[in-house]
UniProtKB/TrEMBL annotation:
Superkingdom of origin organism: Bacteria
Record's protein name: Diguanylate cyclase/phosphodiesterase
Bilayer-crossing regions: 31-50, 62-83, 89-117, 129-153, 165-184, 196-216, 228-245, 266-284, 290-307
Residues covered by the GGDEF domain: 350-484
PROSITE patterns listed in its UniProt record: EAL, GGDEF
CDD domains: EAL, GGDEF
Keyword terms of this UniProt record: Membrane, Transmembrane, Transmembrane helix
InterPro entries: Biofilm_reg_signaling (IPR052155), EAL_dom (IPR001633), EAL_sf (IPR035919), GGDEF_dom (IPR000160), Nucleotide_cyclase (IPR029787), Rev_trsase/Diguanyl_cyclase (IPR043128)
Domain EAL: 489-744
Length: 763
């Protein structure tokens, strides 16, 4: 709400409009007082804006000139008024002073407008601006010539007072028009609302001069034209006064984003259209058939040339802001779109996000198959990226194998994560590159700005870049959210402790499938953490934090408790003859607890879960010291649980572990599955692990199955069970409910033969 002091300018404007609108009001005396009041209030606010401590020197500078404009308004009006006798101007000192003051006022106003201009232009841009300004001023000259100059010269062969005043208005209006069009076509760093009001006052002033000049030239003393001129003469300074008021008001709104005035590049074309419209009117009024035909022909030709130029300009603009290879936006367009999105989110209070994406294995592709194959990979990923984003998102290629997505109007971090997961899923589909089938892998960094704590767009990009490199270090071909890896760890660690103690860690289940029958035989329980502010936090981030905070065992026991209760309910729904195993993970830190086996069996007893249906997965790195791990594993096995060695082949890979530790299952790591390509060298490691397990009478479970060809080849190699996105992603409990009791047809059928070579990409 406006303060009492700020209401006065608006009351003055309302009073002036009422004087013009209501019949019977004393016109000239009241309007004169209101005009003087407008000039005085405008001067006060312009001086205040020129000295406002919240404004920078560059922001204060234009209002010094505007203050001069308001200071000259009253003496100029008095001088012109003193030179009028019976409504007509007479040659006098007052007329000369009025003309001189009008020229000075116009000069100050133009300098004030020019002070709003943004940074200096380059040589080419400066020349373009000059030509555009000439076009606009030329259109204004045509209007002034047709309305003022030509009638004045036609009716008054010598320069009498009326002609002198009309010519003065024509000259100063051309200069004023030049200043206004420079601001409109170049844009301004000033706040939009005050500048719009100021420019509106300038435009109304031009209209007032045009109408007043028309009345002077034609000797009109009464009627609609003089009344319109009088109204415009009041509205113009009133709008300028309100501009000064708004400038002072905006200056005190600390912390609010200030929107600058955009550029109006179409102004020269509007001036051209106005000029030809005026030519057409003049030709029709002249009654000459010759002139009408010539004008129509000129309009058609100019329209054709202008339309062609507009199309060429749009094409050139697209070339400048589009990546030529992928047809995505380039870095230039990304920057401008990010700035606009930041301004929009600041107004709406929604979040702004950025994804930064780097392709894994791009260099290997170039080295192995050449740069043309690398280009095909970039084009294929660009198409996948375009299919994955939302309609209002902007996908872009930054250069090389780096891509980005601007995510505007986010309601929460979960939306950014959803887009990242769609990108990873879509890009992971098989594509043909260099005549072979490949999968494109990527690492995605996510950064989301809080509207209550806005950050510069450069900083937002930097955060996404940091998150992307964190994702690459994890080597998971996944996404990483900024603020949960490195920056903000202390705060995140504290939040994790609170949520673990409050039981806020949820569990999802990834199905494990019998490769021969396609039937669901087990589920692996996986912990998930939804941060109340930052959204989903990947396990690669919060598990190490839980270990550092000393709550990893509490987290593991919480997962075990939830999972055993849930799987027991599913087991009760299974038909006769079917069983469902549960796999849970234990960390190396948990294996250091002396009472680990007792704590696990206590949870099983409390939930009523049969230990014979439990598979305890331990990382291979955790059994480096088998002297300490073996008793825990033996106790768990004695209780009925089975032991699985996770990520086999990626850690210590000592056969001594398999012969001395109570291991029942080997889990073949995804990195070996990714090497499967239908050829002997690609399946060498996987086949060796499977054969070793068969010799030792161990079960094998392959992880990371993403393609039907991988499932087929593993089946032929003798692997029994598998899990991966080819079958199902980790699912919430309600989705697994739909699978319990489902027939084999609910799972994807495996191809009967090994398909052509598949080249896996990525680290």
């Amino acid at each position: 709400m406006l303060t009492e002091l700020r209401r006065w300018p608006y009351l003055i404007v309302a009073a002036g409009l009422a004087v013009h609108a209501l019949p019977g009001t004393p016109g000239d005396p009241v309007l004169g007082l209101l005009y003087v009041g407008t000039a005085a209030v405008g001067l006060a606010y312009a001086i205040r804006a020129a000295r406002h401590p919240a404004l920078s020197p560059a922001e204060r500078r234009p209002w010094r000139y505007i203050a001069v404009v308001f200071a000259l308004m009253t003496p100029m009006a008095a001088a012109f008024g003193a030179s009028r006798v019976d409504g007509q101007y007479t040659i006098s000192v007052g007329l000369a002073v009025g003309v001189l003051l009008r020229l000075t006022l116009t000069g100050a106003l133009v300098w004030g407008l020019l002070a709003f201009l943004s940074e200096p232009l380059s040589g080419a841009a400066r020349r373009k601006l000059v030509l555009d300004s000439v076009t606009v001023v030329g259109g204004g000259l045509m209007v002034l010539w047709y309305v003022l100059v030509a009638p004045a010269l036609r009716h008054h062969h010598h320069f009498d007072p009326r002609t002198s005043v009309a010519m003065t208005f024509a000259v100063v209006d051309l200069v004023l028009l030049l200043g206004a069009c420079l601001v409109l076509m170049r844009g301004s760093s000033g706040v939009a609302r005050p500048l719009v009001l100021l420019l509106a006052g300038v435009v109304v002033n031009l209209v007032a001069d045009l109408v007043l000049g028309f009345a002077l030239v034609h000797g009109l003393r009464e009627g609609a034209v003089p009344e319109a001129a009088a109204l415009a003469n009041f509205v113009a300074p009133a709008l300028m006064m309100l501009a000064a008021v708004e400038r002072c008001r905006v200056a005190v709104l600390a912390g609010r984003r200030r929107r600058a005035l955009p550029r109006y590049a179409a102004l020269p074309y509007l001036a051209l259209l106005l000029g030809y419209a005026l030519l057409a009117v003049a030709a029709v009024r002249s009654g000459s058939v010759v002139w009408i035909g010539l004008v129509v022909g000129s309009v058609v030709m100019t329209f054709g040339v202008a339309a062609r130029q507009v199309i060429a300009l749009r094409e050139n603009h697209e070339l400048v802001v589009t990546d030529s290879l992928t047809r995505l936006a380039n870095r230039t367009r990304l920057r401008s779109s990010l700035d606009r999105a930041a301004a929009r989110c600041a107004r709406t209070g929604r979040r702004l996000g950025v994804l930064l994406i780097d392709l894994d294995g791009f260099k290997q592709m170039n080295d192995a198959f050449g740069h043309e194959a690398g280009d095909e990979m970039l084009v294929a990923f660009g198409a996948a990226l375009r299919r994955s984003v939302r309609p209002n998102d902007l996908p872009a290629r930054l250069g090389g194998d780096e891509f980005a997505v601007v995510l505007a109007d986010l309601t929460g971090i979960h939306e950014a994560v959803a887009v990242a997961e769609r990108v990873l899923a879509e890009s992971g589909r098989p594509v043909t590159i260099a005549g072979r089938t490949h999968r494109i892998r990527a690492s995605v960094g996510i950064a989301v700005a809080d509207p209550e704590r806005p950050v510069p767009t450069n900083e937002l990009l930097h955060r996404a870049d940091q998150a992307m490199y964190a994702a690459k270090r994890n080597q998971t071909h996944g996404w990483q959210l900024w603020g949960v890896d490195g920056a903000g760890d202390d705060e995140l660690r504290a939040d994790l402790v609170v949520d673990v103690e409050a039981g806020q860690i949820s569990v999802v289940y990834q199905p494990i499938v019998d490769l021969r029958s396609g039937d669901l035989v087990a589920v692996e329980a996986l912990a998930r953490w939804e941060h109340p502010v930052r959204g989903p936090v990947p396990p690669s981030t919060f598990i190490p934090l839980a270990e550092e905070a000393g709550v990893v065992h509490a987290l593991g026991m919480s997962v075990l408790d939830q999972a055993t209760r849930q799987v027991r309910r599913w087991q009760q729904r299974l038909p006769e003859g079917r069983a469902l195993q549960l796999s849970v993970n234990l960390s190396a830190h948990q294996l250091e607890r002396p009472a680990l086996a007792a704590e696990v069996t206590e949870v099983l007893a409390r939930t009523g879960f049969d230990p014979r249906h439990l598979v305890v997965e331990i990382p291979e790195s955790a059994v480096a010291d088998d002297e300490s791990a073996a008793p825990h594993l033996a106790a768990l096995r004695a209780a009925g649980a089975r032991i699985a060695l996770d990520d086999f082949g990626t850690g210590y890979s000592s056969l001594r572990h398999l012969t001395r530790l109570p291991v029942d299952v080997l889990k073949l790591d995804r990195c070996f599955v990714a090497e499967l390509n239908g050829e002997a060298e690609g399946s060498a490691v996987a086949e060796a692990v499977i054969r070793l397990a068969q010799v030792l009478r161990l079960e094998t479970i392959a992880e990371g199955i993403e393609l039907p060809a991988q499932a087929t080849e593993l089946t032929l190699l003798g692997c029994r069970n598998a899990q991966g996105y080819h079958f199902a992603a980790p699912l919430p409990p309600e989705r697994v409910d739909e699978l319990i009791g489902a027939s084999i047809e609910a799972w994807p059928h495996l191809p009967p033969v090994v398909p052509p070579r598949v080249e896996p990409l990525g680290v």
